[in-house]
Specification:
This protein is of the alpha+beta class. It has helices at about 30-40, 50-65, 100-105, 110-120, 205-215, 295-300; strands at about 45-50, 80, 90-95, 125-135, 145, 155, 160-165, 175-180, 215-220, 225-230, 235, 245-255, 260, 290-295. It has one domain (about 25-310): q2cbj1_9rhob like domain (Jelly Rolls, Sandwich). It contains 6 helices and 14 strands. The strands form 3 sheets. Strands 1, 2, 3, 4, 7, 10, 12 and 14 form an 8-stranded antiparallel β-sheet that branches. The protein has a 4-stranded antiparallel β-sheet with strand order 5-11-8-9, with no helix packed on it.
Length: about 325
Amino acid sequence: MTNDLGLTTGPITSLFTCPEEPEDWLKYTLSEEQIRRFRDVGYLTGVKLLNPDQIEALKNELLEMTAPDHPGHEFFYEYHSNESEDPDTTLFHALGAWRVRPAFHDLLWNPAFLMPSYQLLGKDFRLFHDQLFSKPARHGGVVAWHQDYSYWTWTAPMEHLTCWIGLDDTDSSNGCMYYVPGSHHWGLLEKKSLAGEMNAIRKQLTPGQLEDFDRKIPVEMKAGEASFHHPLLMHGSYENNSARSRRATIINIFAEGVKSNREDDGSNAPGADNYPQVPKGEKMQGTYYPLLLEAEKSIGRIRSQIPTITDFL
């Protein structure tokens, strides 16, 4: 049996070093230019989060968790050995790894992730959930074009942020993500199947949005680098037909104060019943939505030295 690691708040290993003094956080800060870019285009790429030892630890644990009978399997919110709707491709996708393996648990308290997240949200924040994606070499499936918040309308207001972390070098040949710059200004669109028809969303787009869509860009990064994106940014990733794997983990967070918006009839409920439920209208909090960064406690006396998105709105 594996213990539920989600019952422990804070690091349980020495894989990531927590700053001891407020000034120690400064080496993890984004520049004002990076924050302005995020505001303008809806994303930021190439943020270094992991060293080689951390990458290796996470890859080893991911390999363990791809076996459906692994210890701790029962703690996942969702688990899909293959979510692809194309029988000739494979897309491993699971949510809740932080409750199952120690490196993924402690990744949530990696200061190199926490500080940029605080700057791009501009508020204290909690974990929403984490995700694993693995596209095997030569037959890795797609993640269709989508906006993250279209799956998250059971929370409100829309104060979310997504951090995508590569465990392999990613480029257009092995199924990297693509972003549509500025698409976070489009408004919320109807969600489509996450692993279905790649371009299904195009049928909903206006002529102007289609022009934006055709200017999509590949997010090519080295292993250990991360991208951050807005909850309405249109993004997706194509097949992996290369001889290399494409593995990634994602951390989704929301600002302190976000509430449950879950309808009683379940019409906007998440895709599985394992998510910790919060009654509609109540604050999203509790054991499985831990507070990851409380700025006053962590960076107190240097808070005014750290730019956030709120300084540029």
